[in-house]
Amino acid sequence: MKYKNFRALALSTSALVMVVAQAVRAEPVPADGEMTPPVLSTQGTPGLEWDAGATLSFQHSDNIYLTSNDRVSDWAAILSPWLRMTLRQQDFRLDLTASADIARYSGNSNEDYEDLFLGAQLRYRFSDRLFAFGGLDFAQDHESRLSPDDVNGISPTEYTESSAFLGIGGQLETGSYRIGLNVRDLDYDDTPAAGGAIIDNDDRDRRQTELGARFGVFQMEDGEVFVQVIYDERDYDQPIDNEGFQRSSKGYEATIGYSGTVGRFRGEAFMGIMSRDYDDARFASITTLDMGVDMTANLGRGTSLDAILERSIEETTLAGASAYISTTAGLRLRHRVTPDLSIAAYAFLTENDYRGVARTDSVSEIGVSLRHYLNPRVYIDADYDYRQRLSDVAGAEFDDHRITLTLGTSLREQYDATSATLARPGASGFYLGAFLGDNALQTRVEGFRGVNPAGLIADFGDHGGAAGVFAGYRWDYGSLVLGVEAEYEANDTSWPHLANRTFSVERGDAWSLSALAGLRVRGGNLVYSRFGVISSEFNSSYQDGVGPLVQLSDRETGFLVGVGAEVPFGRGLSGRIEYQLRAYGDYEIGAPLGGGNDDNFANIESVVRFGLVYELGGGQPVEAAEPTEFGGFYAGGYIGHGTLQSDNVGPRPGGAGGAPFVLSTVRAGQGFSGGVLAGWGHQANRLYVGGEAEFEVSDASWNIKRDSNNGRIYSFKKIHSVGAGLRLGYVVNDNVLLFARAGLVRTRIDVNYVDGPNPPFASSPDLDGVRFGGGIEFAISDDMHARFEYTQTNYEGNSVNYGTGTDDFDTTERQFRIGLVKQF
Fold it and tell me: Is residue 29 over pLDDT 70?
């Protein structure tokens, strides 16, 4: 994704946050608790305070090396002790912190690590208008496999980080101010590699020095406007790295921002510019937009929402690249049911845009966490998170499902057991249901071509229908709903690759078991997430030329994560819309099978389902709610995920003296999207009709890399869309709108095509398409609605003439989107 497109995504996310902030009626924000940003203060009872604790976690990952193919799963036990001490006097405060993370893997001991952190912060107040602060930190850490700079050693890269900071701050007539200096020293250890080699990381060692100042320039009723300037030097110990580049640089940031409250949101937001100049003349200077948001909203009833937006210029080890611009946008929702029971969910999207080389990565992470205190000092956590990286570099993509169970303790009590109202299950019961769905199957294929063991890296896939039945049991804890669910799914999704090598994958039936957690909102509508394990049948075939046909039929086990909404119709019957992401263990196939040059197939899926749910016993009582008016003008934003699939037909020369042939296959990939929308509708009794316009950006893409004598590298990537359409709907229970939609869109696609020695082809055509689909909408406050919808877009065909031939593409897009809209 180009920078300008992610900027639009980030701004649409910020716009969505601001819409929520203005839509939610202002209520007093507590002066203490999680709604207040942490401030290093000297206030408090003089004396020594301390707390200590530890957690023991058992974590399972289905892809510990974060690879596209040849996935490895494993369990890890992680022990994390910690200690915090605070010494307060009248004008003095000292904070000391120590923590560690010690991990041991069950089957891959090379991934074991021992991390350590020690920190001290000091603050001294000279007067009510002047204070000084300083601190020292030391960390012994390791580089995550998720890091863009991971060097793919046989064990993680270890490093130490030492930092010191000092400064002064206080109050002026125009507002607060702070001036500070921060020095960080990074020292990377060498990393062992396969075959006994050693990866030299000494050229990454560096010292980073930052000098910054921040001044409040204008006081407002609920906050202040500030300006901030930071000067930054990054000096490498080795003037020239192992690839021959000079990576030392100097830079600055200059921003203007606001710190305070907006509606129920409290925090700060800023915008400005940042720039870096490099010692190496081959590295162009970088000047780009700087922006940030760190806001927290009290939504009432024990619920808070964090909105985060960060942007920075980061160092890299990628040869030829000066840096990458990292932009992260995310939301985190917390809900405390009772003092001893809480749930949290989050979603983050990060784009890493490399400068100097043609590479852009998009990393997404979504998760849900449930915490239950066994007593005021001991708790258990159950966490599930899903991580995915999409890249325009073939083979750099991955996805990873992780399940973590944690036992934790602290010396300090987290609530008063004698007076607190603790969690008790309320209504509970069994339920049954059935669903119809649309399944998108994607297979990442990696195999030997030409003289390269990884000569083929390609994305294939298609979509097909799905249907099934399910049964479950759930418990209500106030507005929190917990449950377990088992299901059976029938599926006929398949894709073919017809060429000199013919291979295909067909999805069979599936069984799954999931845990569900959700919150009931107005009118008893349920918003939920799920995570679980799934076993699916895959039938694969492979034939090389006129050689023997190899067929495999086997069940593969995988993990799934999903999100959905359920709306009651009455008399125990409810409707459901849900979206799931799934990933399975990979396998080898070739012809002949086991001949040493087998391909590796890694299957992932995204599926939308529309279902009916019947609660045995007639269902639970539904909270009475005022009827919702869906008519009038509205505006909002959304985030989504979907697939991009292209039927690809084109001539190919025969390899190794073979006859020419015509390739026919389906390319497929996934991606996230975000956008803004506005519309107007009219409601007449239960009928609804309206029009809507939208703009969205996306990182959905697919790519193929074939490295041989007649190899080629090409890719499709969606950039942005603009569209308009009609919505027709029917209102049930006076507060839920079931709607269908149809309209026209125009979408910008980036196409890159390289065919062996021929000149590279690149273009950005605008493709017109017809978008149709449906979904549900319901109120979550007086003027704020939530929307869950699924759409399909059929685009016009396009062709690529790469010099010696022409490839034709017929592209289809499917998206699941969750939106928030404000009614005016």
Answer: no
Question: At 410, which helix (H) or strand (E)?
Answer: strand 398-410
User: Residue 463's Cα: distance from chain center in Å?
Assistant: 23
Q: Which one is predicted more confidently, 758 or 232?
A: 232
The 8-class DSSP code of residue 8 comes to H
Interatomic CA distance for residues 652 and 655, integer angstroms:
9
- Identify the bridge partners of residue 243 per DSSP, sorted by sequence position: none
% helix, strand, coil for the chain, step of 5: 5, 70, 25
Rounded to 5 degrees, φ, ψ at 778 are: -150, 160
Chain centroid to CA 637: 17
Which two tokens mark 586? 């990979």
The answer to whether the CB of 111 falls within 8 A of the CB of 103 is yes
Preceding peptide of 592 cis, ω within 30° = yes
Other Cβ atoms closer than 10 A to 178: 17
Question: In angstroms, rounded to a whole number, what is the distance separating the alpha carbons of residues 588 and 626?
Answer: 57
**Which neighbouring-strand residues pair with 683?**
688
Question: Nearest Cα to 11, choosing from 695, 693, 671?
Answer: 695
Output phi, psi for 333, to 5 deg. Answer: -110, 130
Give CA–CA dist 446/588, Å, rounded. Answer: 10
The beta strand positions in 685-711, using DSSP E, are 687-698, 701-706
Distance CA 540, CA 601 (A): 9
Please give the pLDDT value at position 784: 87
The one-character DSSP state at 14 is H
- Which parts of 512-635 fold into alpha helices (H)? none
- Looking at residue 107, what DSSP letter applies? S
Q: Please tell me the distance from the alpha carbon of residue 328 to that of residue 292, in angstroms, as a whole number.
A: 9
CB 438 within 8 A of CB 466: yes
At residue 563, does pLDDT exceed 90?
yes
pLDDT above 90 coverage of the chain, percent: 66
* pLDDT tens-place string over residues 344-387: 999 999 999 999 998 889 999 999 999 999 999 999 999 999 99
| Residue at 368: amino acid letter | V
pLDDT in tens, 181-214: 999 999 999 998 888 889 899 999 999 999 999 9
SS3 for 78-106, per residue?
Answer: EEEEEEEEEEECCCEEEEEEEEEEEEEEC
Q: pLDDT higher for 290 or 193?
A: 290
Could you give the CA distance from residue 72 to residue 313 in angstroms, rounded to a whole number?
32
CATH number of the structural domain 3-410: 2.40.160
pTM of the model: 0.85
Alpha-carbon distance 630 to 20, whole Å?
Answer: 17
pLDDT in tens, 492-542: 899 999 888 899 999 999 999 999 999 998 888 999 999 999 999 999 999
Phi/psi for 247 (5° steps) reads -100, -5
The three-state DSSP-derived secondary structure of 428-470 is EEEEEEEEEEEEEEEEEEEEEECCEEEEEEEEEEEEEEEEEEE
Give the C-alpha distances (Å, rounded to integers) separating 712 from 442, 545, 666: 21, 20, 16
Structure tokens of 485? 């669910």
8 A C-beta contact, residue 256 and residue 224 = no
Question: What backbone torsions phi and psi does residue 203 show, to the nearest 5 degrees?
Answer: -75, 0
Give kind and range of the element (H or E) at residue 9: helix 3-23
Q: Tell me if residue 57 falls in helix, strand or coil.
A: strand
- Domain positions in the chain are 3-410
Q: Which residues contact 375 (CB under 8 A, 6 or more apart)?
A: 417
> Between the CA of residue 148 and those of 113, 324, 347, 425, what are the distances in Å?
19, 9, 20, 45
- SS3 for 780? coil
Rg (CA), the chain: 28
Q: How many whole angstroms separate alpha carbon 174 and alpha carbon 563?
A: 47
Dihedrals φ, ψ of 587, to 5°?
-155, 165
Q: What is the pLDDT of residue 597?
A: 84
